[in-house]
Amino acid sequence: MIYDRLFHHEFQMDFYDTEVHICIEHFKRYASFKCSNLNYIPRIGENIILNFLQAKVGTSYFYVEDVRHEFVEKKQIIFLMLKGGFYNSYWYYRKHKAIELREISVMDELNLYDLQIKAKLGRNY
């Protein structure tokens, strides 16, 4: 059975192609594009300047909010989730702590601006 071989490290999977999808959000304005050759994959918290997006989303300064990987057939697909502005490690920690403590919901994170979430947290922010 394939699962027995897979989980006993006898089965090797090879991914020959890598595709990078960059998804951008800034105050509910969105953009996305695909890269076929990116020499370095930015990590969470790293800042990126994309001047060509200024007119579309209202800024050219972004940070990596999340990195996701998907493996499909022989391809690795990497999703870089960028958010407009500059990375704040305290806010990243505090927002995720608020989700874990159920001070805010996951839907709040998806639907509200950071300023609205901070207001909802009040002095606890």
Describe the overall structure.
The structure is a single chain. A 5-stranded mixed sheet has the order 2-1-5-4-3. The N and C termini lie far apart (52 Å). The longest helix is centred in the last third of the chain and has 12 residues, at 89-100. The protein has 125 residues and is an alpha+beta fold. It is built from 5 helices and 5 strands; from the N terminus they run αβββαββααα.
On the 0-100 scale, what is the average pLDDT?
90
- Helix and strand composition category: alpha+beta
**Largest beta-sheet details:** 5 strands, mixed
Task: Pick out the low-confidence regions.
Answer: none
The amount of helix comes to 25-40%
Widest beta sheet: strand line-up: 2-1-5-4-3
Q: N-to-C SSE series?
A: HEEEHEEHHH
Number of helices: 5
Total beta strand runs: 5
Gross morphology: flat
**Proportion of strand residues:** 25-35%
Q: How many domains, as an integer?
A: 2
Topology:
Blueprint: H1 2-7, E1 17-26, E2 29-35, E3 47-49, H2 54-57, E4 61-72, E5 75-84, H3 89-100, H4 106-111, H5 114-121
Parallel strand pairs: 1-5
Antiparallel strand pairs: 1-2, 3-4, 4-5
Summarize this structure as a short list of keywords or feature phrases.
5-stranded mixed sheet; flat; alpha+beta
